[in-house]
Amino acid sequence: MIFELIIGVLCIIGYFYIRLKIKWNFWKDHNVPFPQPEFPFGSTPMFGWNSFKQEASMNDLAKTQAMALGFPKFYGNYIFGAPNLMICDPEMAKQIMVKDFDHFVNRQAEDFIKLLEGGHFVDQVWANQMTALQGDKWKNTRATFTPIFTAGKLKGMIKFMHEVTNDLVKSVDQEAKTGKAFDLKEKFGKFSMDTIATCAFGVNAKSFEDDKSTFAMNARAVFRNSRWDVLRIIMALLPGGKEFLNFFGSPINKKHVTLFFYDIIRGTIEHRMKTKTRRNDLVDLMIDAMKADTPPEEDKDTEGQFDQDAKLNHKVVSKQMDEITMVATALVILVAGYDTTAQTMAITSYFLARNPDIQEKLYQEIMECVGEIKNEKGHPDYNQIQSLPYLDMVLHETLRINPALGIITRVCSKDYLIPGTDVLLKKGNEVHINAMAIHNNPNIYPDPEKYDPERFTKEAKANRHPYAFLGFGQGPRNCIGMRFALLEAKLGLFAVLWKYKFVATTETVEEFTLDPSSFLSAPKEALFVKVEERQQ
Ligand code: HEM
């Protein structure tokens, strides 16, 4: 209690300290639109006050801010006193994410990463995650690990995904037999968890057998921020705050959850190296990737603009990594891959239940493919699953309406004059690409609230700016796991939709709202539907 009281007092001091730092007129002086200031952190409801109040999700705020300002190309707000640019225009997004990438290699503010580095051991693990790494260290890590997600490597991993689809279908079959509605978020959470656990760590997380498996409970805890979690972050940003927390043995990040995964990952890596056993899963591929003599593999699936723009011209200096970087990289696969994929699958299935005509069209496509499957278990191979355009369109439309990350951040690492303006961003200023604004702009996507996969036909995409879709980010710092995620989601949905139909019931919400306590875009309500077995 006393501890919390001291933190409360420090936060009040910090509030006034931050207020003094805010350069209130920065955007006004540059004639850049900005939302009305909101108590207490200036006009920046994204982090700070709103995260603490937990009233609206970041995606909702990003969307409503851009709507209120009439979808400008860009607008400004403030983050802890520093001007932050919000980009709502695809061409400007391309400028930042690709053309001027040199100025925007980093995702998080240097000050924040410095807070994590050199502090509590748990915070050092988080500072070494690919999502957080900076500059050359990030380039080295990214270039070293990119080859583990090539089409060739994914083909080798597909058998593990097939095993988990068997468990998923068994579980869906039980739901069909009871005829009761069940929560899609829970079902696909288990699927995603078990897929990552087996592909990345060689662990059977047994989520379908045991609802409360320790692995699952800990993985879920990574994504849920209590007020105390937010308070620690705010506290750490204040002068002396980190030292205060560390003095009491408290890291800024979640301690028990981090240590749980750290132990699993380190144990697996040690075991593999000692016993020289191989599964060809992500852990093995990571160990391979770090061997100096591994020749770079040519990836034939990278002709599209997305992949071209993602190319990172960087010569890896040394592949030798310390233990923390290795474990942190494995941990990020779980952190970045679990909830994102689970939510995408759950929301897709919800939309299919709500739109029976779309589900029917997808079913027809799947049934055509089923006729070509040769193995008796009915598992599509890599090429078969990739040859289903409508399934791909459906997933992309889900991510348009509900991108897992509605705001994609970059930090300016050298001064940058925004093209066509007199706005000079200084080193350390943040830039947020407002994917929610771009995805909901009626001039780009007419009738944006409507779920309509036809927006992602080849022709429709060719008629739009390529950066009008930001579901997986763009440029050299885009989502490294995109192909893994799409493969997993397609296999899971294929396996279920072939035999069962998602049906909305009275328990199915008309619309879902987003959970403000999750930094990812996740429905707050349960997504209840029932399944009916199809007559084959
Ligand atoms: C549907 C599922 C997924 C979605 C929607 C998604 C989306 C994203 C987005 C929007 C970013 C930021 C990109 C940017 O800043 O330009 C990102 C980064 C990242 N994602 Fe994913 N992701 C998904 C699944 C996965 C999976 C399965 C993995 C790992 C196997 C993964 C690993 C990562 C990593 C490591 C980064 C940081 C990359 C870097 O900083 O270099 N993601 N993801």
From TrEMBL:
Alphabetical UniProt keywords: Endoplasmic reticulum, Heme, Iron, Membrane, Metal-binding, Microsome, Monooxygenase, Oxidoreductase
Domain of life: Eukaryota
Family annotation (InterPro entries): Cyt_P450, Cyt_P450_CS, Cyt_P450_E_grp-I, Cyt_P450_sf, Insect_CytP450_Detox
Chief site of localization: endoplasmic reticulum
Cellular component annotations (GO), alphabetically ordered: endoplasmic reticulum membrane
Pfam families named in the record: p450
Membrane topology: Peripheral membrane protein
Protein's cellular compartments: Endoplasmic reticulum membrane; Microsome membrane
Cofactor: heme
Residues the record lists as binding heme: C479
Family, as annotated: Belongs to the cytochrome P450 family.
Protein name: Cytochrome P450 CYP3026A3
Species name: Tigriopus japonicus
Name of the gene: CYP3026A3
